[in-house]
Amino acid sequence: MSTVRPTEGPVRVCRLDDLLPERGAGALLGEHRVALFRLADDRVVAVQQRDPYSGANVLSRGIVGDVAGVPTVTSPMYKQVWDVLTGACLDPVGKEPVDLRCYPVTVVDGDVLVAVAS
């Protein structure tokens, strides 16, 4: 997991080439633990790293997939499924749905930039 101290606005986290397609990577941006995912079409998305059901910081180790064309991550803990574009919980596996926090991501000249609020 990389550590970056955020300033005002988006901060550089890594290079796009550092992220493997359809795999997650963790980053610590100040106090924010973020899970980054490079999708099959090279879009990069970021959600909170903390699994709201287990409390463990493991979502970057989740399974990247899709449900009806919507890119998803499945928790490696209890197998809940989220839309990584909106954070919406698509399958709470018998529990109350809890959505994820999403972070804005841009890729500029191959640099992945993530915006977090302090």
Describe the structure.
- The protein is an all-beta fold.
- The chain contains no helices and twelve strands.
- It has strands spanning 2-4, 11-15, 23-29, 32-38, 44-48, 63-67, 70-74, 81-83, 89-91, 102-103, 105-108, 111-114.
- A five-stranded mixed beta sheet has the order 1-3-4-5-10, with no helix packed on it. Strands 6-7-8-9 form a four-stranded antiparallel beta sheet, with no helix packed on it.
- The chain is globular, with a radius of gyration of 13 Å.
- The model has no long low-confidence stretch (mean pLDDT 94).
Secondary-structure topology with pairs:
Layout: E1 2-4, E2 11-15, E3 23-29, E4 32-38, E5 44-48, E6 63-67, E7 70-74, E8 81-83, E9 89-91, E10 102-103, E11 105-108, E12 111-114
Parallel strand pairs: 1-3
Antiparallel strand pairs: 2-12, 3-4, 4-5, 5-10, 6-7, 7-8, 8-9, 11-12
Quick gist of this model?
The chain contains no helices and twelve strands. The protein is an all-beta fold and 118 residues long. It is globular and about 40 Å long.
Low-confidence stretches: none
Number of helices: 0
Estimate the global geometry from the Cα principal axes: globular
String of helices and strands: EEEEEEEEEEEE
The N- and C-terminal alpha carbons lie at a distance of 19 Å
The percentage of residues in β strands lies in: 35-45%
Mean of pLDDT:
94
Helix content: under 10%
- For the report, how would you describe the main beta sheet? 5 strands, mixed
Sheet with most strands: strand arrangement: 1-3-4-5-10
Q: Structural class from helices and strands?
A: mainly beta
What is the radius of gyration?
13 Å
What is the number of strand segments? 12
